[in-house]
Write a structure and sequence with these properties.
The structure is a single chain. It contains 23 helices and 11 strands. The chain is of the alpha+beta class. It has a 4-stranded antiparallel beta sheet with strand order 1-2-11-10, with no helix packed on it. It has a 4-stranded antiparallel beta sheet with strand order 3-4-5-9, with no helix packed on it. A 3-stranded antiparallel beta sheet has the order 6-7-8, with no helix packed on it. Helix 7 crosses helix 9. The longest helix is centred in the middle third of the chain and has 33 residues. The relative contact order is 0.09.
């Protein structure tokens, strides 16, 4: 490209730009389209704002530029879009000097600094994954505020869930949102686009209108409100719960007491079998921690109320028996107080916690031993974090060894792990007694999975080590990833174990596993488990069976993989955000 003059760069001779024959030129690495129309030369971004098709392949009529792919049209002079609302075309100043065309890229460009937010709003209402991916890609490429972007999503999501969603589907959408954010923060740059797109897509959808919820008139106290919330939860009256939560917020001074109450109600014995409660209240707690009450009030108050006041059928005989046992066991624990305050065992018995006996009882297939080992461990003063670690690793070990020539039970196994991990949130936000109750909900999940044909194996046994001489680390990782891509379910477990036995970095392998799971836009069903394993890989660092976390993840990701190589929305959006046209993609 020829010399620059006063911010303008020579891009072509005027004779090279003919009527009806647009010309593409490169300026500072980006493709610029030159058009001659009615004797005037115009310069625009060559990338159609819709999906990046080269506009030099479009046509101009009456000053309107129309893309030849999907028919989006723009004002050639000002860039205004006639089709897409918030997708204006970037235009640039042009000067003709002595038979040459000069363009200033620095003085032209985007008309809207908040274009990605406008796109995101459109995507959130339409649920269109391409539009959402494009907005997220622009955010990442241009370094715009992630905080503003996520705040927009949480506000939309609050109204969407309040008007369109119930307890479990709303909870699932918040799960995608929270876990998408958490997984994205494990990566940098372009690798973050898919999990952030999952996060935004999770809270997308129709958002209707509804009257503002007004607080209850005085006189009312926090003590009355928390009592009413407990009663409404038992009576399945979610609207009363929401009214009480809004009133508590308007009163002021009680925000810190709301989350513990939500956890307490969600872990009540009559919710045994409603496994989503523990997960979803945990996600709500993380939303509050991330965004605060001012941004998340509608989502938190409405969804929490729907969760705590949800309909639930009468328990069958087995579940009622378990509920009665649950109540009796937790009543015996009330005298123990809040347990170890520092996470350590409080007795000699706890210091010698028989993890293998605990795990064997948990998967015994009988409700007495399943609940009994939890009660005994708590009586012995074993810390809840220590019990959770055992439950998490046990679930991972079962994932690593479940037969795949029949129904492997992935749904139940990953729920075991995620519920166990969520007890850590219950402990953090709800306190020791609430977390102790959460352990029984996890134990019930293990009991419910008694149909799985997975033999018990002592967790304390090391998985062994290999002699040096295996493939080097890069080759070993490539072998694992290749087996996932090729759906080699019978090979992937052995390869992952061999990698770990060789002493190679589990941190590196986990990150690479995550990228393979996410990259095809079809990893949403594994997103929450991937996030859980990122958390637990660190928290279970000293456990001898820790590697089963990665073995289990690799086996599940391989077994459920059915479509490869799509990458459609994310890859296209990323190319778009970098200013590449569709033609550039194929030429490169």
């Amino acid at each position: 490209m020829s010399k620059e003059q006063n911010g303008f760069v020579r891009v072509a001779a005027t004779a090279e730009v003919e009527d009806g024959k647009p010309k593409a030129v490169k300026v500072e690495g980006r493709s610029i389209a030159l058009f001659r129309h009615n004797g005037t030369i115009y310069a625009t971004d060559n990338q159609c704002p819709h999906m990046g098709y080269p506009l030099t392949r479009g046509r101009v009529r009456n000053g309107v530029l129309t893309c030849d792919w999907h028919g989006w049209s723009y004002d050639l002079g000002g860039g205004g879009c006639f089709t897409g609302g918030c997708d204006d075309l970037e235009t640039f100043p042009v000067e003709v000097r002595n038979g040459d065309v000069f363009v200033s890229v620095s003085e032209g460009g985007s008309k809207r600094s908040d274009a990605h937010l406008l796109l995101l709003k459109e995507g959130l209402f339409s649920t269109d994954q391409w539009t959402i991916s494009k907005a997220v890609a622009i955010m990442l490429a241009r370094g715009v505020s992630e905080e503003d972007t996520l705040n927009l999503i949480i506000r939309h999501g609050g109204r969407h869930i309040a008007t369109e969603r119930g307890a479990n589907d709303g909870g699932g959408e918040v799960s995608d949102f929270v876990n998408g954010i958490k997984v994205a923060r494990q990566y940098e740059s372009d690798d973050r686009i898919i999990p952030l797109t999952f996060a935004a897509h999770g809270l997308s959808g129709r958002a209707g209108d509804r009257p503002s919820i007004q607080r209850l008139p005085d006189p009312v106290t926090w003590e009355k409100l928390e009592g009413w919330i407990r009663v409404f939860s038992k009576d399945k009256k979610w609207e009363g719960i929401e009214k009480c939560l809004i009133t508590a917020r308007r009163m002021g001074g009680h925000d810190h007491e709301i989350l513990p109450l939500l956890f307490e109600c969600a872990m009540a014995p009559h919710f045994l079998g409603n496994s989503n409660n523990l997960l979803n209240i945990g996600y709500i707690a993380e939303v509050l921690e991330e965004f605060g009450w001012d941004e998340a009030e509608e989502l938190v108050c409405n969804l929490s109320a729907k969760i705590l006041g949800q309909e639930r059928g009468l328990p069958d005989e087995i579940r009622q028996s378990a509920i009665d046992r649950f109540i009796a066991d937790t009543e015996t624990l009330d005298s123990l107080g809040d347990g170890p305050s520092d996470g350590s065992a409080s007795s000699e018995t706890a210091a010698h916690f028989d993890e293998d006996a605990f795990a064997e009882g948990l998967v015994s297939g009988e409700i007495g031993p399943t609940f009994g080992v939890v009660t005994q461990a708590l009586k012995d003063g074993v810390s809840i974090d220590r019990i959770v670690t055992t439950m998490v690793v046990l679930a991972a070990d079962r994932m690593a060894r479940t037969p795949v020539n029949m129904n492997p039970g992935w749904g139940g196994l990953v729920r075991e792990m995620m519920m166990a991990s969520s007890v850590r949130k219950a402990l953090r936000y709800g306190g020791h007694r609430v977390a102790a109750q959460g352990l029984y909900h996890v134990a019930w999940q293990f009991y419910g999975d008694r149909w799985l044909n997975i033999t018990h194996r002592p967790l304390s046994e090391s998985r062994g080590s290999l002699q040096p001489g295996s493939a080097d680390e890069a080759e070993a990782i490539e072998g694992v990833l290749s087996s996932i891509e090729q759906i080699q379910i019978r090979e992937i477990g052995r390869q992952t174990r061999d990698y770990l036995r060789s002493g190679y970095s589990g941190d590196t392998l986990l990150r690479e596993l995550g990228l393979v799971i996410l990259k095809d836009d079809n990893g949403r069903n594994i997103l929450s488990t991937l996030r859980t394993i990122f958390d637990e890989w660190t928290l279970c660092e000293d456990h001898p069976s820790r590697g089963q976390l990665l073995v289990g993840l690799a086996r599940w990701a391989t077994d459920v993989r059915r479509a490869t190589g799509s990458q459609s929305a994310a890859a296209t959006a990323l190319r778009f955000a970098k200013g590449q046209t569709a033609v550039d993609l194929y030429e490169s």
